[in-house]
Amino acid sequence: MIELLNTKDENIASRIVELQIQAYMEEAKLINFYEIPALKESVGDIQQCDEIFYGWWEGDDLAGIISYKIENGVLDIHRVAVKPVYFRRGIAKGLLQYIEGMHKCRKIIVQTGEGNYPAKLLYESFGFRQKGEIEVTEGLIMAVFEKEA
User: Fold this and answer.
1) Residue 134 CA to chain centroid, in angstroms?
2) Quick one: how many helices (H) and strands (E) in the chain?
3) Residue 33 main-chain phi, psi, to 5 deg
4) What is the number of alpha carbons within 13 Å of residue 23 lying toward its C-beta?
5) Of 40, 118, 140, 144, which is least surrounded by CB within 10 A?
6) Is the pTM of this model over 0.90?
7) Residue 79: its H or E element
């Protein structure tokens, strides 16, 4: 089940942090960079974040999240994360489809670590095209994807 997450709720924010640590540690291994900002976020950081979060629940377990902002007709996806135990079950795909279907924007953008090939393949399967790369910080190169909606 997909639902809007109340990130002000300490329990929800705590579940997001737990999920992010598990998911982004897997990405860190893929891209060989362990300073991913989401790995360092606290419950308070999530509670103060101005992104809109949706979660995919498997029973009482928060299995996946997606977060985004919309500005000037652009849907900017900030996070797509799935607990490793739920990998390859279509959760990231389901969250992307849900958000994309909910918002009619002129463009959608998303980024992932350059070496995160599973995420890159997922975005390409959704019609995203890699538009370039940016070095966010020394050692962290992000692949930038966009899609005209």
Assistant:
1) 17
2) 4, 7
3) -145, 115
4) 27
5) 40
6) yes
7) strand 74-82
pLDDT score for 4: 98
3-state class (DSSP) for residue 112: strand
Give me the phi and psi of 4, to 5 degrees please.
Answer: -65, 135
Tell which residue, 134, 39, 137, has the closest CA to residue 146: 134
| CATH number for the segment(s) 2-148 | 3.40.630.30
Taking the C-alpha atoms of residue 112 and residue 5, their distance in angstroms, rounded to an integer, is 22
Closest by CA position to 122, among listed 66, 63, 73: 66
Please report, for the chain, the start and end positions of each structural domain, with discontinuous segments joined by +.
Answer: 2-148
Q: How far apart are CA 22 and CA 41, in angstroms?
A: 13
Averaged over successive runs of 10 residues, the pLDDT of the chain (149 residues) comes to 98 98 94 90 97 98 98 96 96 96 93 93 95 89 92
Write the Ramachandran bin of 139: left for phi over 0, alpha for psi from -120 to 50, otherwise beta. Answer: left
Among 64, 66, 13, smallest CA distance to 41 is for 13
